[in-house]
Amino acid sequence: MTEKESKKNPKSARGLYYYLRQAWKKPDKKTLRERMIAWRKSGVFTKVDKPLRLDRARALGYKDKKGFVIIRIRVRRGGHKRPRPNKGRRSKRLHTRKTLKMNYRWIAEQRVARKYKNLEVLNSYEIGKDGVHYFYEVICVDPSKPEIKNDRTINWICNLKNKKRPMRGLTSAGKKSRGLRSKHPTNKSRPSVRAGKRRGK
Fold it and tell me: Taking the model in full, what pTM does it have?
């Protein structure tokens, strides 16, 4: 096919991952509802063989080889509460509601990192939500595997300075929640919110 014909026919050059992305923009409600019923009955952390959103996982660095692990996690939606003292003197203006400045995806990554201490979190993506829960798939890497150490595209995660990335806000969800996506000159969240006298968020 010549270049002129390809410009006239843009749909002819679509690949598999394009159609996977389009399908996930409007997923089948009945199928997703049945899946979430099964996910609610399973545990909070579940290791899965293959990623559900293959296009998203591949874009975020997943490879179908030894050392890569996909973990599905369930996170409760809703507000967070502060612990209230139940005795002694206390302020009248002690509010129970707490506005958490972390997004749910970052919370999910941190919980996976605490549960699986031998794995390093690479990235994550949302696969569904209902009235009570968010569901995410977290891509993890085992840095002790020789397949990971010998792969030049991913062996940077074996470096000791890249340990516990979700706890330090170095994943994609963590950087977004910290306000580091904005590069405006008046942005006070750089180099960190604490350095900007907490004016950033």
Answer: 0.84
